[in-house]
Model the fold of this input.
Amino acid sequence: MTYVELIVVLSIFSIMSAIGLFSYKEFQIKVDIKNLANDIALKFVQAQKESTTGKLPVLSMPSADPWKPSYGLLFTSDSPSAFLYFADLDQGKVFDGPYIPCPSNDPGNSVECLETITITKGNFVSDISIFIGATATEISEAHITFTRPDSGATLRCTGDSICAQIADGTTIIDFLQITISSPQGTSSLIKVYPSGRIQLN
Done:
């Protein structure tokens, strides 16, 4: 093998290695986004399960309250790299209290907040939208709650005039869509239906 042939072989090997590493990195980003979507979907399932089985929240509740709370998740565009898991103690279908890391022992903080889930690896919630028919409306905040004995989801929002119509029942949401994205632009969709069905795309 001559010196020129050796250089050609090494060049080809280097190019193929670079292509392979780039493809692996892209593949890993897609896997991370799909795993994140699955983790969020499992959190929805947890809220659904704990609501229907009547699980009490981790935080203490007055013994005079025999009822079981609803459970839900809150997504907001103000904090795209985290979302909340909460117990809807007043059955108001929305999270009550400031959006803060929780749980917290500070009495000034809302007792409804049970857990703050931080989204890692630079991934984030890039869009929150409601769909009425084929029309999508971007919203700034989404409250998804589950109340026993029904396993269906109650979808509430803020950030658009249509949210008031949804709250009073004059407008029905077909589904809520949460888009999660990576810094490189790879994304995945999580769709939540009023029936309680969670769909990943």
Summary: The chain has two helices and ten strands.
